[in-house]
Amino acid sequence: MYIAMNRFKVALGSEAEFERLWTSRDTHLKDVPGFVEFHLLRGPKKDGHVLYSSHTIWADHASFEGWTRSEAFRAAHRNAGGGTRSLYLGHPEFEGFEVIQTVK
């Protein structure tokens, strides 16, 4: 299993607009081979921003890599950043993780 995360520092006062943009868009994920699930996470307030993370779970790293090269990825990111840069402080930070242990 592989977990891909992008962390966003969202300017205070922009949280509702950021959440509206993310929850109303088509992620194009549901039909991608190896996709398991997606979460949009809201974290703590810190130094003039709220921390958010997009969190996807994949069957394996190869499935995630396939997604990044797919037409579905291009469609999902076609308008990324268009008019939304003022919502963020800096660029999103990507973090990828191979799952070592899962406890259910």
Automatic annotation (TrEMBL):
GO terms for molecular function: monooxygenase activity. Keywords: Monooxygenase, Oxidoreductase. SUPFAM superfamilies: Dimeric alpha+beta barrel. Residues 2-97 form the ABM domain. It comes from the Bacteria. PROSITE patterns: ABM. PANTHER family: SIGNAL TRANSDUCTION PROTEIN TRAP (PTHR34474). This is Antibiotic biosynthesis monooxygenase.
